[in-house]
């Protein structure tokens, strides 16, 4: 990690009612500092994509237990699962049809490939655009969400969002869609990575995913991420930016 005398303490956590209403949830997070866009992650991406191809076989992403669990969760939230898909399902669907994903930024390319391999949605946030902290909670209806096209939306009251201290929503419909506000940019130096799953072996699989991703990040950028596995009894990840 990069040494600094001006670090600010921050944290990530899920609200208690999220754990209460979705007791099957397993989550984990990585904090990485010292990243840049001038590296290659091609080998790691190729390995993760090979795993995804093996899992998909001749079938569909909708057959995977990880995706089925998120579909049940979206239905429980009152969302039509085939209209609003988890990020992992959307990536797998595109990958199955096109055989590849577009390159965006080395960190995003790496996380997208890991998401394909494990069929678990991964969110990646540029922390320089997150105020105070980041909580997964239900929206009050007053939050602001910036789309990638620059439009501002207001999440529905009760919708599960990622929100910061200023009431800005950094993801809508839980794992459906991230905000353009905290998207990874060429100048991004520190980021928060969040993985969430709800299937039967979610805890073990989420930890395996984050361990594999952490190793790939360390091999690429030479910096070991801070890692935390989260549950209802230990829902908070504290780190310094």
From TrEMBL:
Signal peptide: none
PANTHER family, A to Z: CYTOPLASMIC PROTEIN, PTHR39209
MF (Gene Ontology): phenylalanine-tRNA ligase activity; RNA binding
Pfam families: B3_4
Alphabetical list of InterPro entries matching this protein: B3/B4_tRNA-bd, Phe-tRNA_synthase-like_B3/B4
Name this polypeptide is given: Phenylalanine--tRNA ligase beta subunit-related protein
Limits of the B3/B4 tRNA-binding domain: 68-219
């Amino acid at each position: 990690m990069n040494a600094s005398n001006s670090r600010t303490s921050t944290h990530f956590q899920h609200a208690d009612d999220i754990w209460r209403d979705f007791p099957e949830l397993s989550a984990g997070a990585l904090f990485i500092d010292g990243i840049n866009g001038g590296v290659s992650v091609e080998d790691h991406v190729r390995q993760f994509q090979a795993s995804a191809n093996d899992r998909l076989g001749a079938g569909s992403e909708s057959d995977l237990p990880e995706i089925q669990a998120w579909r049940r969760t979206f239905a429980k939230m009152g969302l039509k699962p085939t209209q609003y898909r988890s990020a992992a399902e959307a990536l797998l669907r595109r990958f199955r049809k096109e055989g590849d994903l577009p390159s965006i930024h080395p960190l995003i390319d790496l996380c997208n490939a890991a998401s394909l391999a494990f069929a678990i949605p991964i969110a990646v946030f540029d922390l320089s655009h997150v105020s105070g902290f980041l909580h997964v909670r239900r929206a009050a209806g007053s939050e602001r969400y910036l789309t990638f096209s620059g439009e501002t939306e207001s999440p529905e009251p009760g919708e599960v969002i990622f929100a910061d201290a200023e009431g800005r929503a950094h993801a809508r419909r839980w794992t459906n869609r991230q905000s353009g506000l905290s998207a990874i940019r060429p100048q991004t130096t520190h980021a928060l990575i969040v993985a969430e799953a709800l299937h039967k072996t979610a805890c073990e699989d989420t930890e395996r995913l984050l361990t594999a991703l952490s190793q790939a990040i360390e091999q690429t950028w030479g910096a070991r991420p801070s890692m935390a596995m989260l549950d209802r009894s230990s829902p908070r990840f504290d780190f310094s930016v």
